[in-house]
Amino acid sequence: MITPLGTSLILRPNAKKTQTESGILLPASDSAPVFYHTVVSAGKEVTEIKAGDTVYVPADARRNPFEHDGETLVRVRAEDIPFIYYA
């Protein structure tokens, strides 16, 4: 378990979509960032976002990827998250 400090969030990138809901295949591109992430944990100063939330991370947000227990996670600041996504 990782506990971030302050207003930091630890996120798990969601899988990239390979097909639209109507069946159109999307091109595979590793250069395109994943915009939706699942929150793994949040710092004590984060009040509006909690573990399990799906959040949108803009392309211009400062991302700090790292490896933990064999998976790639991302650290971002809560201030860089404009909204929580509810499906």
What does the model show?
By secondary structure, this protein is an all-beta fold. It has a single domain, classed as GroES chaperonin (10 Kd Chaperonin, Protein Cpn10, Chain O, Roll), CATH 2.30.33. It is globular and about 40 Å long. The protein has a 6-stranded antiparallel beta sheet with strand order 4-5-1-2-3-6, with no helix packed on it. Helices cover 0% and strands 34% of the residues. The model has no long low-confidence stretch (mean pLDDT 87). It is built from no helices and 6 strands. The two termini are 26 Å apart. A hairpin with a 2-residue loop joins β4 and β5.
Task: Describe what is shown at a glance.
The protein has 87 residues and is an all-beta fold. 0% of the residues lie in helices and 34% in strands.
Task: List the SSEs and their pairings.
Elements: E1 8-13, E2 36-42, E3 54-56, E4 64-68, E5 71-77, E6 84-85
Antiparallel strand pairs: 1-2, 1-5, 2-3, 3-6, 4-5
List its salient traits.
mainly beta; 10 Kd Chaperonin, Protein Cpn10, Chain O; six-stranded antiparallel beta sheet; 87 residues; 0% helix
CATH architectural label: Roll
Considering the protein shown, what is the CATH homologous superfamily? GroES chaperonin
Work out the count of structural domains: 1
Q: Output the CATH topology.
A: 10 Kd Chaperonin, Protein Cpn10, Chain O
What's the level 1 CATH class?
Mainly Beta
Radius of gyration: 14 Å
Strand order of the largest sheet: 4-5-1-2-3-6
Largest sheet: 6 strands, antiparallel
What count of helical segments does DSSP give?
Answer: 0
- The N- and C-terminal alpha carbons lie at a distance of 26 Å
* SSE string: EEEEEE
- Give the averaged pLDDT, no decimals: 87
